[in-house]
Amino acid sequence: MTLSLGWFSAVFAGFFSAHVLQRLCFPYFWRDLLFLLKVVRYGVTLELFKVTSRVRTVLDRFIQQAQRIPDKPFVIYEGSVHTYRDIDRRSNRFAQVFLDELKLKKGECVALLMSNEPDFLCAWFGLAKVGCSVAFLNTNIKSKSLLHCFNCCGAKTLIVGSDLLDTLDGILTTLLDDSIRVWAVKSHSEHTQVNTLLDKIDAASDEPVPAALRATTSLKSPTLYIFTSGTTGLPKAAVITHLQSLKAAAGFWAFGVTEDDVMYVPLPLYHSAASLIGIGGTIELGATCILKKKFSASHFWSDCRKHNVTVFQYIGELCRYLCNQPQSDRDKDHKVVMGVGNGLRPDVWREFHSRFGNIKMCEVYGSTEGNLCFMNHIGKIGTVGRSNFIYRLLFKYDLVKYDMLRDEPVKDPHGFCQRVEQGETGLLLSKVSAISPFFGYAGSKQLTEKKLMRDVFAKGDAYFNTGDLMSEEQEGFICFRDRVGDTFRWKGENVATTEVAEIVGQMDFIQEVNVYGVEIQGHEGRAGMAAMIVRPGFTFDGKKLFDHVTRELPAYARPLFIRLQEEMEMTSTYKQQKFQLVQSGFNPSTVPDPLFVLDQQQHFYIPLTDTIYQSIISGERKL
Length: 623
What we know:
It is an enzyme of class 6 (ligase). The protein is an alpha/beta fold and 623 residues long. It has 20 helices and 30 strands. Strands 2-1-11-10-12-13-14-15 form an eight-stranded mixed β-sheet. The protein has a seven-stranded mixed β-sheet with strand order 7-6-5-3-4-8-9, sandwiched between helices. Strands 16, 17, 20, 21, 22 and 23 form a six-stranded antiparallel β-sheet that branches. Helix 9 (242-249) packs across helix 11. It is globular and about 70 Å long. The protein starts with a helix and ends in a 6-residue tail after the last helix. Mean pLDDT is 89; it is low at 15-26.
């Protein structure tokens, strides 16, 4: 008996010691393990698709949910409830019209230019039901960029929302000359060469089209093209396969969201976050989505209370806007328990928690076209994800040393990259493999190749270059530090500096222009700034430049600041030098060159004085 008690005490002491050791040295072990088991289990399901050739797509899952829970609200939009059955049947009508009127064929690509609304989903699903891939067009892009998008994905049909038809003014003739058919989601059109859809949809059958049209045998088949700004200037069409769509659709589920949750989606559907994670995630769970046409900080919490929202999608700027709203006694009067998104600054994160309650903020890191994703399932402030030895076994990534002055990775004597030490900042590279494929961009092998780095650590290897500087801390938390190259983020949108430079450089008084992003205290991301050389014999024209960028660029891409220089600094490889310009910022007391700021009231680029600078830094002047 004494021996048994001694054995039991020893075992108990051993377990207790192991538990204490685990809590002290590996405090996130069980949470990491359970999260990874979910991820691996889902991954195994996707791998089985490859073996059996029985691919279940996101659309298949939606149709399955429409049969399982037909009367459950799927989308609530501006007070109107649309059930799973409603969207399924209306998308059937779209599909019938696409077949009978538009004569679309399986495998064709169709461009979709629509704002957030239920018919965006019906058009998207309707196209998928007839076997077409869909190119989501950014509703902010204009003229030349819009035309470029058709060349990328090869679309010959454009479906445009009723509220966006006017944005085609000036390029409609060019579209028609290029044999692109334009169909408006309207019953009547003043444009004689623009076809109408709504009148035909109202008369169409809501019976399903043959399932064989949407069937696919490969996870790697393209289903969407989502445009992303990059270092090449004009938008790039990232190829989104069924594999990527399915992975994204599992995001909410991986974070522990259930079918009883209500999701709030205020982000634009043409971005992957709202469409793939938001709508796809809602479908995967069989949950309900509150869809907003546009984000409104003043209506956000009242919407959440009205619809009993439990989970919302965000970008960092969205949370900052909410924190800037006047305080209310009802700030913590809501049922929201989780936010899923990216780009949330630590200071805004803390203020958000203090103001609105201990909502778990789950950061997701990953680009639309990228082959790597980090998920901060712990919710630790200031981090974008977690990593450990198991994650590294599954997903090969590395942080390598990067020379900001030379704007290139640091190489060893043999020409290979060098890994950073733990805690140091480095360029994030993700190995391209069967588990983590990179599908690239439509229409250009050159653009796809440009995102890859080869012979990184050994001859013949290939890594996806994220263009992001990250660090991995002691406990395995991943922290975002900065972007490199020719892209910065402002107002929740990626801005391609070369695209902006090309448009700004069209002015006859500008000889050379270098566009970059500068940090502004209290603002997420970086604001656009353009250093330029005025052509000999000309003078800087602030009014002319204002009119030009307002006409040709979306608001988030317009340079807020201008810096006039005598000569442009170059790197050793003859690239424009941005690092020193970014570092020097836009303070007129420290920058020796003439500075100007975009003024929306005067419709002019006016001189940037110390007084105006202080009003920007203090937040008094709105940007």
